[in-house]
Each structure stands twice: as C-alpha cells, then as structure tokens.
Design a protein that fits this description.
237 residues, alpha+beta, 434 Repressor (Amino-terminal Domain), Umud Fragment, subunit A, ten-stranded mixed beta sheet, globular
Length: 237
C-alpha cells in the first residue's frame, strides 16, 4: 500500500519520530490534524508540505499523493529508478515535425487554463501545439495516448506541489474517483484541478494543497463533472 499514512510513517522512521505529537511538532501543525492525515480524512496542505520539503529529503509531490520521485533531486538519498516519473520531454512543436517510433504526440491546449485557484477558465480552438511523450512510459502506467491531453494550471491553490503555469497531463479515461488523487473537473462551468475525496451521501470533498487560502469544499457528486485524473505535471521556475 502507498497511502498517506504509509508515507508519513516512512518519513517518521527516517527522522526518529515515534509519535503523532512529534510529527505535529516537526511539521508545525496540531496533533488533531496529524490524526486526520493518518485516518485519511484530509490530505497534506501547503504549510506541512513546505516544512517537510525543507526538513527532509522527500519530495513534496511524493508525500502529497505518492507519485513521482520519492526524493528531491538534490537529495543524498539512494538512487531512484528513473521510470517512476520520466513521462515526457518538455518540448512543444507544431504539425510537421516527425516523430520517432518510440514517441507519441498529445494535444497541448495552451489557451485552455485549468483553474487551480478561483475557477475561471477560457478555451479556444486547438492551436496545433503538442507535447511528445514516450510510449513506453505511458504504457507502463496503463495510459492510452489517445486519452491524454495537456493543459496549463492557473492559480496558487495547488502550491507548492504545482504552481501557477505548470503544465499538466490529464488522463481523460480515469473518471472514477480514487480518494486523495488529483483530478481536472468541471465544477458549475469552472474548470479546476483539485484533490477529491468521496463522502457518504454521494458527496465529494474538494481539497487544495494551499488550504490556508483555499479551504475545503463539499459538494454533491452531481455538481461536478470529472474530466480526468492529473497523472503528470512539469514546472519551470
């Protein structure tokens, strides 16, 4: 299993933390919030992710949702197999550039802004830009290239995991919610990227990493449309 509880227990073991109170002090949060992490009722917010990123060698992406490299690029930890996150090169091109046999192309909708903040969005016709993905890395994750679309994040609600302007890969075939995963959703006309949790009574909790500025929301499942799961992102600072 690779639950948030599992990942936090690994962090605790590496840093000699034996109780939830010690982890709370380490992250600068309350013991009650740590208890919610362990029982799966809420995810990590921006404050603890920033603390963990500064104090440990673990990457914020891996701590947040279990994907990507376990350790930060400048970590002195043991090497990590590169196929964990090597999904794509960050190169755009327009029609006419030949592909090699190991590559596939997916649409990069540069003028479609998935909101990771207030929710506003704009869309225009496909502009011809694409991203190159290696077929083998998509296939290892069980992702059909025909189901992939790339877009840009907008806003600060998902910082520090991905900031405003990050490029996101969305698998449009994955519309069933797995608790704690990131999804692109249409919420009452707003295109948003959020962490989703299923709740009793056909309700959905919408969670942001930057929960200080963007508190949790609860909505009826019928109020949102799942566009797909965000499986990859790229950030250039």
């Amino acid at each position: 299993m690779n639950t948030l509880k599992d990942r936090l227990e690994e962090l605790m073991a590496e840093h000699g933390l034996t109780t939830q109170q010690q982890l709370a002090d380490f992250a600068g949060v309350s013991k009650g919030l740590v208890g919610q992490w362990f029982n799966g009722s809420t995810g990590l917010g921006a404050k603890p992710l920033l603390a963990f990123g500064k104090k440990t060698r673990f990457s914020t992406q891996w701590l947040a949702d279990g994907t990507g490299e376990k350790y930060q690029p400048d970590s002195t930890g043991k090497p990590i197999e590169s196929n964990a996150t090597a999904f794509a090169m960050v190169e755009t091109w327009q029609d006419g550039t030949p592909l090699n046999n190991a590559e596939c192309e997916v649409p990069f909708l540069k003028e479609v802004r998935l909101s990771a903040g207030s929710g506003a969005f704009e869309a225009s016709d496909f502009n011809g830009y694409k991203l190159r993905f290696h077929k083998s890395t998509l296939h290892r994750k069980g992702i059909n290239p025909k189901d992939v679309v790339c877009v840009s994040a907008d806003g600060n609600s998902m910082e520090p995991v991905f900031p405003d302007g990050a490029t996101l890969g969305v698998d449009t075939s994955q519309k069933h919610i797995k608790d704690g995963k990131i999804y692109a959703i249409n919420h009452d006309g707003w295109l948003r990227t959020k962490i989703l949790y299923r709740l009793p009574g056909n309700r959905i909790r919408i969670h942001s990493y930057n929960e200080d500025e963007h508190p949790n929301e609860e909505v009826d499942a019928s109020d949102i449309q799942i566009i797909g799961r965000v499986f990859w992102w790229s950030v250039l600072d």
